[in-house]
């Protein structure tokens, strides 16, 4: 009986050593799984590292386009003129002027339904006679109930990026395009 129990003990020791050897390293499947997770994470992280300014500029351009469309719809539905105000300098940076009562009464009298505040974006206005005006503070675009508007083009620029929002004076249609297409 002694030899049998001794052989069992040595086989148990061999199994224990084999299990320890297996626990020391990683399997190929585990390594591949970790590499796949790292690759998937890099797909999401790397594009977000650069181009933040481009995304901000495009977002502000889309927001301005949406506000113009909103004002156009509002004018047609309500039967009253609707205006979008474009502030090159946000109201917060203007100081004490933004809190006065005359500003709030002016907002209600001019039917301003939306306001766009540019941060770091240069804005120019081109009228139907191709005359360009650099907007230093505020400009407004008004839409009328019959579908027309004050018309013109708003030229947005920030660093190396630029875009144009065209507003048709006859039907009020709003369209966005790159500045390079204009040249």
Compact description:
The protein has 183 residues and is α+β, with helices and mostly antiparallel strands. It contains 5 helices and 8 strands, in the order αααβααβββββββ.
Task: Please render the helix and strand layout as text.
Layout: H1 2-24, H2 28-49, H3 52-78, E1 82-87, H4 91-94, H5 101-109, E2 112-117, E3 122-126, E4 132-135, E5 138-143, E6 152-158, E7 161-167, E8 174-178
Parallel strand pairs: 1-2
Antiparallel strand pairs: 1-5, 3-4, 3-6, 6-7, 7-8
Estimated share of beta-strand residues: 25-35%
Report the radius of gyration as a whole number of Å.
32 Å
Distance between the termini: 100 Å
Query: How is the CATH topology of the largest domain named?
Result: minor pseudopilin epsh fold
Q: Provide the domain count.
A: 2
The CATH class of the largest domain turns out to be: Alpha Beta
DSSP summary, beta strand count: 8
Helix proportion range: 40-55%
Characterize the overall form: elongated
For the biggest sheet, the summary is: 5 strands, antiparallel
Given the helix and strand composition, which structural class is it? alpha+beta
Query: Segments where pLDDT lies below 50 for 5+ residues?
Result: 96-109
Strand order of the largest sheet: 4-3-6-7-8
List the helices and strands in order. Answer: HHHEHHEEEEEEE
The DSSP helix count reads: 5
Notes on the protein architecture:
There is one protein chain. The chain has 183 residues and is an alpha+beta fold. Helices cover 46% and strands 25% of the residues. The strands form two sheets. Strands 4-3-6-7-8 form a five-stranded antiparallel sheet, with helices on one face. A three-stranded mixed sheet has the order 2-1-5, sandwiched between helices. The longest helix is centred in the middle third of the chain and has 27 residues, at 52-78. It starts with a helix and ends in a 5-residue tail after the last strand.
């Amino acid at each position: 009986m002694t030899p049998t129990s001794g052989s069992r003990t040595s086989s148990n020791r061999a199994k224990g050593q084999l299990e320890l050897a297996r626990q020391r390293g990683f399997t190929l499947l585990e390594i591949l799984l970790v590499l796949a997770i790292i690759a998937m994470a890099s797909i999401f992280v790397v594009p977000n590292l650069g181009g933040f300014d481009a995304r901000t500029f495009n977002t502000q351009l889309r927001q301005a386009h949406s506000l113009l469309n909103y004002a156009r719809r509002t004018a047609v539905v309500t039967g009253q003129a609707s205006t979008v105000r474009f502030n090159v300098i946000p109201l917060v940076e203007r100081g004490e002027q933004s809190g006065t009562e005359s500003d709030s009464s002016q907002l209600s009298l001019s039917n301003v339904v939306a306001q766009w505040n540019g941060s770091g974006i240069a804005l120019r206005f081109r009228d139907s006679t191709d005359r360009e005006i650099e907007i230093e503070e505020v400009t407004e675009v008004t839409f009328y109930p019959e579908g027309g508007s004050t018309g013109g083009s708003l030229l947005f620029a920030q660093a190396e990026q630029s875009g144009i929002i065209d507003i048709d004076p006859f039907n009020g249609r709003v369209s966005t395009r790159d500045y390079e297409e204009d040249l």
